[in-house]
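Structure (tokenized):
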């Protein structure tokens, strides 16, 4: 199952929780972490449906890489409720080089496991995933 380039497997829970977010709206967001010792991607944190975007950004560590999925709900100009599922590759400048390399080399394979992602963002600091950025990319 592991990818030759990165050697990271994807824990079944990652896909199951994503499907719950996508189909049932069970979660607002999911933060994923690579467990280097186990050589796999695992679910680190689940955001409740009532939690907002600030709760999501606060759950990303300031100096460690993560993958995250956020279910962004918004109103169109015609007042139609819509949502977009964002995939965010969080790779802060302050994180370790090795960590950045592992996350970068595993990203595409991991993202392919999550069927239904509509928008992808790569971020190295909080301004790159500000709510204004999310809103502009959602349409």
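Design, position by position:
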């Amino acid at each position: 199952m592991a990818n030759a380039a990165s050697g990271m497997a994807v824990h079944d829970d990652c896909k199951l929780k994503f499907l719950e977010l996508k189909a049932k709206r069970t979660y607002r967001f999911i933060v994923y972490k690579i467990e280097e010792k186990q050589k796999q991607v695992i679910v680190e944190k689940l955001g409740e449906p009532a939690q907002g975007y600030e709760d999501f950004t606060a759950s990303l560590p300031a100096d460690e890489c993560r993958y995250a999925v956020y279910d962004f709900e918004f109103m169109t100009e015609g007042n139609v409720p819509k949502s977009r599922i964002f995939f965010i590759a969080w790779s802060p400048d302050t994180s370790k080089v090795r960590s950045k390399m592992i996350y970068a080399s595993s990203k595409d394979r991991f993202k392919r496991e999550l069927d239904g992602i509509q928008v992808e963002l790569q971020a190295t600091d909080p301004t790159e995933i500000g709510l204004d950025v999310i809103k502009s990319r959602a349409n």
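Reviewer-requested clarification: The domain at 9-138 is CATH 3.40.20.10 (Severin). The beta strands are 9-10, 29-35, 40-47, 66-75, 81-90, 119-123.
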